[in-house]
Amino acid sequence: MTDIAELAVTAVGSGGDGIAPLPGGGTAFVPGALPGEQVRAELGPRRRDGVPARLVEILRPAPDRVVPPCPHFAEGCGGCAVQHWAPAAQAGWKHDRLREALSRGGFPDAAVADTVSTPPGRRRRADFAVRRGPDGIRLGFHRAGSGEVLDIRECLVVDPRLAALIAPLREMLRRLGALRRDGSAVVNLLDTGPDVLLRTDGPLSPTERVALAAFAQEAGIPRIAWALKDGAAEIAAQTGPVAITLSGAALAPAPGAFLQASPDGEAAIIAAVLAALPAKLAGRGRIADLHAGLGTLSLPLATRGRVAAFEGDAAAVSALAAAAGRAGVPLSATRRDLARQPLTVAELAPFAAVVLDPPHAGAAEQVALLARSAVPLVIYVSCNPAALSRDARAFAQAGWTLAAATPIDQFVHSAQLEAVVAFARAPQRGSVRDR
């Protein structure tokens, strides 16, 4: 027997689902429901964290409910979570999520700036899932909460030049025997055009390489790289140079290289990081950029001090070092796996500021050492509120203060949230010794 309940939605959770208390106790998670709404929902099996539910009917809609602009949202596309919510309400939700994350991390009175939101149609990176089945090639994103690939015709959040590749890519993959069942297509929009990394579950034949070269020429794609499943990428076809300019320096990124999701989001992150720096850095003005990637932050930071960039990916380090050398930017780029070998307290001592831009899991080991160090300022660039909350607690327990916090929404309509948070060391007597 189906269990249908009438629920009053009180909030939106971290994944974008509406949250509603259940009459008999506990919490229901209702995708598609918004705060202030009265809804009817079909309740699923109880889990430890609550009860998943399916929205059946909206009895009283919220005033900030809007018509989703993309037709695929109603089909369950997992690329977006809250297209049915007005942009101002989304920005307020993300502001509150950062404030809550910092409160859980030991900073209950954190002053959080307004959310910096980027417009749709600006995403310059797309990671399309691909699946071959009885109905042909599906290319798009996974359905929300499912491994099923939803075939899409358009996408309103990516740059139109990337959206224009959806149909040609699907047709090309239909003829590619190297795609047996599952694959992916990562597309970065560079200054020179789309840069494509294909991953397939079968080997690429010489004939297919010729076909990819013809497709690249026809579609105006300077480079198509290919990899077997999770193996190393190789160049399958190249019709011209690849380059992107970051803060005035031209780089040649590796296939599938990490870029900030949009130029607007990148600019907002850079602005927040630079604003958190003091007008004059202490000592010799040295800045460490940890998890530096291609140098998105290292290059602008070099206008404020001497930068030492640390990054684990060899290709990114090489690209950054070469670009900085050509542009005459005073920075050093060092390859180092910071998850396995974080900078020690002694190594951190010379820096007037440290910028930390960790992966989604955060940087617990490095943060523990930073919290014990004598570095006066740490600027943490977060892409995961849960990891930020955990890492912030180390600073709170060590007596640091929170100097600034800015939420940045460059993944418009999604549940993802980025933030730039500055932690300042309170003046202390004595010194901190390394382990």
Q: How would you characterize the overall build of this protein?
A:
S-adenosyl-L-methionine binds at residues 260, 311, 357. Belongs to the class I-like SAM-binding methyltransferase superfamily. RNA M5U methyltransferase family. The active site is at residue 383. Keywords: Iron, Iron-sulfur, Metal-binding, Methyltransferase, S-adenosyl-L-methionine, Transferase. The chain is built from 10 helices and 23 strands. By secondary structure, it is of the alpha/beta class. It folds into 3 domains: 4-65, OB fold (Dihydrolipoamide Acetyltransferase, E2P) (Beta Barrel), CATH 2.40.50; 88-119 and 259-424, Rossmann fold (3-Layer(aba) Sandwich); 125-251, OB fold (Dihydrolipoamide Acetyltransferase, E2P) (Beta Barrel), CATH 2.40.50.1070. A hairpin with a 6-residue loop joins β9 (136-142) and β10. α1 runs parallel beside α10 and α9 packs parallel to α10. The model is unreliable at 430-435 (pLDDT under 50).
CATH class of the largest domain: Alpha Beta
In the CATH scheme, what's the topology name of the largest domain?
A: Rossmann fold
The main sheet comes to:
8 strands, mixed
Q: Approximately how much beta-strand content do the residues carry?
A: 25-35%
Q: What do we call the CATH homologous superfamily of the largest domain?
A: Vaccinia Virus protein VP39
- Helix residue percentage: 10-25%
Total number of beta strands:
23
